[in-house]
Amino acid sequence: MAEQKDMVLEMENLNVKFVLEEETVEAVNGISLHMRTGETLGLVGETGAGKTTTALSILKLIDSPPGVLECDRMEVCGQDVLKMTTSELEHIRGSLVSMIFQDPMTSLNPVFTVGQQIAESLERHENLNKNDAWKKAEDMLELVGIPRERAIEYPHQFSGGMKQRVIIAIALACSPRLLIADEPTTALDVTIQAQILHLMKELKEKRNTSVIMITHDLGIVAETCDRVAVMYAGRIIETGNLDEVFNHTKHPYTEGLFNSLPNIKKRKHKLQPIHGLMPDPTNLPKGCAFAPRCNYATEACKERRPELMGFGGTHQAACLAYEQAGFHIERGKTNG
Amino acid sequence: MHRYIIKRLLLMIPVIIGVSFLVFFIMDLAPGDAVDLMAPEGATAEDLMAIRHDLGLDQPVVIRYIRYMGGMLHGDMGISYVSKTDVFDTYMQKLPATIKLSFASILVSVLLSVPLGIYSATRQGTIQDNISMVLAMIGLSMPNFWLGLLLIIAFSLHIHLFPSGGDQTLSAIVLPALTIGTGLMATLTRTTRSSMLDVLKQEYLRTARAKGIPEKTVVMSHALRNALIPIITIIGTQLAGVLGGSVLTETVFAWPGVGRLIVDSLNMRDTPLVTGSIIMTTILLSIVLLLVDLLYAVVDPRIKAQYIIKRGRKKRG
Questions:
Q1: What is the C-alpha separation between A112 and B228, in angstroms, rounded?
Q2: CB within 8 Å: B212 and A94
Q3: Which end of chain B, N or C, is surrounded by fewer C-beta atoms within 10 Å?
Q4: Cβ burial, residue B2 (10 Å; 0-12/13-18/19+)
């Protein structure tokens, strides 16, 4: 069972719904994720694909009501999250699993010093007294490149990039086994983005932390991740290692994502957006959710929902077109 | 920070001048004067004129106002027309009772409202939330004098737990403080609730939860501290309000406070006593409001930074 021990996250068939008075939002529909120690998984998709909801589910931080979380299996480092009491959950949050949020501007409490905010989780999870926790909080600040004297300052005295460093310091303070980074650089400008990503990569390697990198930026995935899972309308539609997904793309949606990237070498080339919008999560189509936007879609796609199927190695994609022998997609021709 | 406080204290001077001016002239514009009310029955017109001359009431209002303010500069707030006692001493005699009652009422209001508001906010839309809001509404809807009388009937006449009036014993403060406190409750509960609801949506609470901070601490420390500004504002204005005196409650419970002093002196057209009392109340309110503003800085470091930046700008300019 050595393999079992190596697993940081095992999640099978996660479903999250938000039951509101007039409608039910089906945010996540049957997602399975498995992660090993030290691995970085990129969770890619458009806004509203259910990436953040999936991440929050791991910590069971979905507001309930209205949120309803159903899952066949959810284990973090071999511990069954689904069976945990609230206080057991509070115990693993921040220590086994921690999270970096998207917007550093609003993710720090404005009335506490950054030192207090880092020390707080240390006091709670590492049984340190106030002084030791404070000292370690200062160490953490230094680790993310902020002078330790600034621990007594408040969030409003920091710039956006510095705040995100503080948030990383909070998340890593108790050396979590799994770090969930929810679009950690989306709110930052490009120069700071590179710094933050570099910092995260460095810290991750130092501590052998597993990372789920939630992003819509394929460039970030290429730079930081070992494996990729592409999400669409609450489902994983393609997953595999970096080479498989990037160089042997199978799903038309993933292909669309690549085609919509600006190309610096062909500056006269028009951007190719994926036309249309993600389907309404309160009213998902019966068949493939991507069919209305897909150039390869057939009648069958509207009727039947594709399941993930293997393409060799770890590569899987959910597309009915591959049931016909000889089907392949061509880069650059996907969207019109 | 010191400069800010000094600036605020200096700002009180124009406020005092304005308030005294208004009170003085409105008193003059009202028909009748103290002499009409004080004069013994059957007094002749000459008698009245003589009394007016003694009090200086035969002078034009502008002269009287300037004289009064001249006295103020020497710390002399004048002599009451009616009781012939020093205005400042008379006011100070009544003030301790009012301060005691004010703080006791605010304490009742805060102890009832803030927990109730937090409780409702964390259970928004549930039956408990609705019941809390109805309770707060009832507190607001009951007229003070009526609630006061009910409390007297229940706790003084039937149970003999608290005295029905006066301020001789410590327990005498319970019923009037309850009466005023329940009246203040509705506003404070609703403010606490809406302010908490606002803060509970903030992302930094999700950060705190993701750190593994227990929900109780998240609400009582992380959220409440951020929700405090509107709560402090309401407590401050309510405190300022009750420090000005609560006439009805003071009357029902025979409480010797400044509310009744001001109303009685108004009825007697006792201009020096009215003006003096109102100036004193103004000073008190300004100090309370200043303390509230300073408390903001204690609660929220961003506001503190603003106070200090203001000073910095001035230095550069």
A1: 14
A2: yes
A3: C
A4: exposed
